[in-house]
Amino acid sequence: MTEQTAAPTGAPVAALQGIRVLDLSRVLAGPWAAQTLGDLGAEVIKIERPGSGDDTRTWGPPFLKDKEGNTTTDAAYYFCTNRNKRSVAVDMAKPAGQQLIVELAKQCDVLIENFKFGNLKQYGLDYDSLKVVNPRLIYCSVTGFGQTGPYAPRPGYDFLIQGMDGLMSVTGLPDGEPGGGPMKAGVAITDVLTGLFSSTAILAAIQARNITGRGQHIDMALLDVGVACMINQAMNYLYSGENPQRMGNAHPNTLPYQDFPTSDGYMIVAIGNDGQFARFCKATGKPWSDDPKFKTNAARIVNRTELIAMVRQLTVTKTTKEWVEFLEKAQVPCGPINTLADVFADPHVKARGMQISMTHPVGGEIPLVASPMRFSDTPVQYRTAPPPLGYHTREVLKDTLFLSDAQIDDLTTQGVLG
User: Fold this and answer.
1) How far apart are CA 76 and CA 58, in angstroms?
2) Would you tell me which CATH number, out of the four given (3.30.450.20, 2.60.200.20, 3.30.1540.10, 3.40.50.720), belongs to the domain 257-338?
3) Closest by Cα among 142, 195, 194 to 165
4) What residues are labeled active site?
5) Which keywords, in A-to-Z order, does the entry hold (predicted)?
């Protein structure tokens, strides 16, 4: 484990200073968890396959361009979830590579992996093997279906899980409408949520270790996370026995809470209570909040079709910009439907610092999306850009395992290191 050292006077303290993470994961869910810990100050060592590395390095275009403008082999996708990590290229299929990873695991507090169920046992890198050499190790396994149950051996992918966890049954336009049918989310939301739950579980296990002195195995499954994140839709089913249906952008439990057409596009109105609806009606001069059919949210749900038709007739009378300015003054939640160009040009997004840049050894200054976490005393730290494959191999093996240059050169010649 890394030695806990005091920060220089006046320097910000990282929340996870002194925690070392061994990241054996790739693609999104596991790397997202590791990056979150890295943003919080943990040292993260990312193990990658020599020659190819994390799968997402090839998931382009677009690809990173070097300082001369030449296209590299690293895709933009890789850069979304691998900052604050050091890349070590080790072939774990070779016994010498396995031993290097075991030695690194001895020096780490946390290990994150997302190999298929049981795959790491053949390399002696499963939890039962590593807890013998490091009883304090917190070992987080991220799989599609978990370590138990009939589906445990199956590979799991976000798109597959969005179908199996019920999300696609409630996402998309209703059956029978043009374009109706199941629809996945526009990003791999189950992967991201699993990464967040994993980092939360790891932090809890670190605190538990502070009390017990013992590490433990964390079993994270995309399907479990997907089911848990069905939230109100799951509860609606459990209490009613009726399957929720796809409703497009409408909300099953509050109204009006959806997109509406304007004279030049669309906007979102997100009314969450009767007070907001009354303000909406007062501002627009409509008597709907006095009508028993619409006065309460429960009544509005029953009379959804009639009310939505009337609101749509109203909203097409102004532009999106005009409506947003008008309704904001009335304290009615509303907003535009932004493209990503709109997002990063938005003055509030800019004020919150959600786009950052970091210096990459090949690409120079590169853009990245910031962490959303804000701390008053232990701020997120952006120390290193997502690294080229194997960029830190020699550095990590010398600093952490105290290997000599000759030993590293010999392992490289053997094809153990990239």
Assistant:
1) 9
2) 3.30.1540.10
3) 194
4) 191
5) Transferase
